[in-house]
Amino acid sequence: MTTTGRFFCADAARTRGDSFVGTAPHGTAWVLIEYRGGWPANGFDGLGLEPGTKALVFAAAQAVRARVLLIRRHGRQGPQGPPRWAVLHYDGTGAHRRHWGTWERDEDLAQIAPALSAPTFAAPAVDAPALDAPGEPGGRRPVVLVCAHGLHDACCAVRGRPVGRALSERWPELVWECTHVGGDRFAANVVVVPDGVYYGNLDAASSVAVVEEHLKGRIHAEHLRGYTDLFPPQQAAVAAVLDRFGPAGRHDYAVARTFRDEDGWQIRVTGRPPGPAAVDVVVRARRTPQNQLTCRGPATSSAVVYDAVSVRPV
After folding, report:
1. pLDDT at 118 over 50
2. Count of other CB atoms within 10 angstroms of residue 156
3. Residue 172's domain is classified under what CATH number?
4. What are phi and psi of 204, to 5 degrees?
5. Euclidean distance between CA atoms 74 and 12, whole angstroms
6. 9-16 and 154-170 are packed helices; what angle lies between their axes, rounded to 10 degrees?
7. In the predicted model, is pLDDT for residue 39 greater than 50?
C-alpha cells in the first residue's frame, strides 16, 4: 500500500523488512471507554472531561499500570444505548477478570476506579448492560481491538480501518476500533484483550485468518508481535517456539526461566503436549540504523530488534 508523494511509516517499515517480534508493550490491565465523538491525537488524555473524574480515572489506571483506550464501533454507527466502559485484566491461568458498565455523564466514569482497584472484578448485575463483548468469568470470547487512530498516525487509519471493517463484518459483537496501541509502523495492529496478545502487519484478509485462529486457541507466529505479560526477549523466545513447533493456545507455553548474560538472554520455555515439554532459546538484541519510525515524527531514531539465534528442545 503506497501513496506517491507522502511518507507512510508502515510502508517504509515493510520495505525495510522491520521486525515486529518482541514489540508488544508490557501490561496486564486495560480500560476501554466508548467515545463516539472525535478522538484527540493523544486519546483519553486529550478529552475535555470533568477534571475531577478524569484525574480519578487516570490515577487509578496509573496505579495498576493499566492502558486507557478509547473505543468505538467501526463506521461510527448510530447510538446503540448509552456508551460503555470496561476494565479487563489478564490472568496467567486464563481466568481473566472483567468488569463493565455504561456512562452518560462524565462523572459516571468514576466507576472505573473501584473496578480497577478491586482484588477481583465483580460480575455485572443480571439486568446490567454489558460491553457487547463476551467475557464473563468462566470462558467467553475476548475483545478484539483494532487501532484506527488516524490523528495519532496516518497509517493507523489507512491500514487500520479496512481491518476494522473486515473484522467487524465477521465478529460484530467482539470488535472495536481503538486509539493508539503502540507500533504505528506495524499497522494494521490488532490487540486481543484481556488475553494480552498483539498482532501486526495485518490487512483485511490476514486479520480475519489470524483472529479466527486465535479464537480457536491457535496463535501463530507469523503476525505475532508478542504477549503483553512478557518482556521483549521473552516475547521473542515464545514467538520462536511457535514458529518452530507450530501454533498453540495462549497458555500452552510459559517462560520458566530467564538468564541474562553479556551476549543476551538464555530463556527456557515450557510447554504442554503436543508441544515440547521444554525449549531453551537464546535471544540477542541489536539496534537498527536510524530511520523515521512514525508518520508524524520526522526525527529519525533506531529501534531494538530481538533475534532468537538458537531454539533447542531440552
Report:
1. yes
2. 28
3. 3.40.30.10
4. -60, -50
5. 26
6. 90
7. yes
In a domain, 112, yes or no: yes
Looking at this protein, which amino acid is placed at residue 32? L
Instruction: Find the mean pLDDT for residues 25-44.
Output: 95
Beta strands in the chain (DSSP E): 29-34, 67-72, 84-89, 97-102, 143-147, 175-178, 190-193, 197-199, 224-227, 253-261, 264-271, 278-287, 291-292, 300-301, 304-313
pTM: 0.90
What does the alpha-carbon distance between residue 37 and residue 168 come to, in Å, rounded to a whole number? Answer: 19
Tell whether 207 is covered by a domain. yes
Q: Is the pLDDT of residue 134 over 60?
A: no
Q: Which domain holds residue 1?
A: 1-231
pLDDT tens-place string over residues 206-221: 999 999 999 999 999 9
- Closest residue by Cα to residue 132 from 29, 28, 34, 30: 34
Residue 241, amino acid: V
CA distance 47 to 288: 36
